[in-house]
């Protein structure tokens, strides 16, 4: 039985008009590159953002110094901060309702994200979400030693919520790396969702329990997977 759902943020529970990956591309290309938006999303989606930059840069087949990566990352953070101050952030359709429906069934909700904590907290504040009211916890990339696809954030979520085991956890996210993270943590279920960075075809390559077209499908998907032979 599922006791906890771990939700990705951008593209899964939060609609921020894909500003993160648009900003990654802007910062990388400002350093003299010409990567497409599709390339950035295919190779950077779901990752801690300095790692996303490293992986996008690798696409040109050249060696890139850590100093260059950090310079681009610093530019990215400045650009993103400006973008988020101006952006009208919205929840993905029915996100808060899904949290409430899960709570009614005794299932906890945790947000996890490749953002650092200050950025993540700014986003949930903009939405009016509160830990303890709408969600049970927030775990960010800056709270753990290893980021996705390592399982550290999910293991932290299990620790802070007191869930019995990873088998009782479902992970949902809009990128392959979210699904890989869930599998590496030993989650009982993993779900892809097509509201963010990657398509159903891309998500299916990571072999999730199911791919959903919206959060409203989550409860039914959990129940269906639970009763499946």
From TrEMBL:
The keyword 4Fe-4S does not apply. InterPro entries: HAD-like_hydrolase_sf, HAD-like_sf, HAD_2, HAD_sf, PGP-like_dom2, PhnX-like. Pfam families: HAD_2. Keywords: Hydrolase. The keyword Nucleotide-binding does not apply. Coiled coil: none annotated. Its EC number is 3.11.1.1. One of its GO terms (cellular component) is cytosol. One of its GO terms (molecular function) is phosphoglycolate phosphatase activity. One of its GO terms (biological process) is DNA repair. It comes from the Bacteria. This is Phosphonoacetaldehyde hydrolase.
């Amino acid at each position: 039985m599922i006791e906890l759902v771990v939700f990705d943020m951008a593209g899964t529970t939060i609609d921020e008009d894909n500003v993160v990956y648009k900003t990654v591309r802007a910062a990388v290309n400002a350093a003299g590159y010409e990567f497409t938006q599709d390339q950035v999303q295919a190779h950077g989606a779901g990752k801690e953002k300095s790692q996303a930059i490293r992986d996008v840069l690798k696409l040109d087949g050249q060696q890139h110094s850590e100093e260059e990566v950090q310079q681009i990352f610093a530019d990215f953070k400045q650009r993103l901060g400006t973008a988020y101050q101006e952006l009208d952030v919205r929840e993905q359709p029915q996100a808060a309702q899904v949290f409430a429906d899960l709570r009614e069934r005794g299932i906890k909700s945790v947000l996890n994200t490749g953002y650092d904590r200050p950025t993540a907290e700014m986003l949930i504040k903009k939405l009016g979400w509160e830990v303890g009211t709408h969600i049970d916890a927030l775990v960010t990339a800056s709270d753990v030693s290893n980021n996705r696809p390592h399982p550290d954030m999910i293991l932290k979520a299990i620790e802070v919520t007191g869930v019995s085991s990873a088998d009782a956890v479902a992970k949902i996210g809009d990128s392959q790396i979210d699904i890989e993270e869930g599998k590496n943590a030993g989650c009982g279920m993993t779900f892809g969702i097509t509201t963010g960075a990657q398509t159903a075809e891309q998500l299916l390559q990571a072999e999730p329990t199911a791919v959903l077209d919206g959060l409203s499908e989550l409860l039914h998907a959990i129940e269906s997977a639970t009763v499946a032979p």
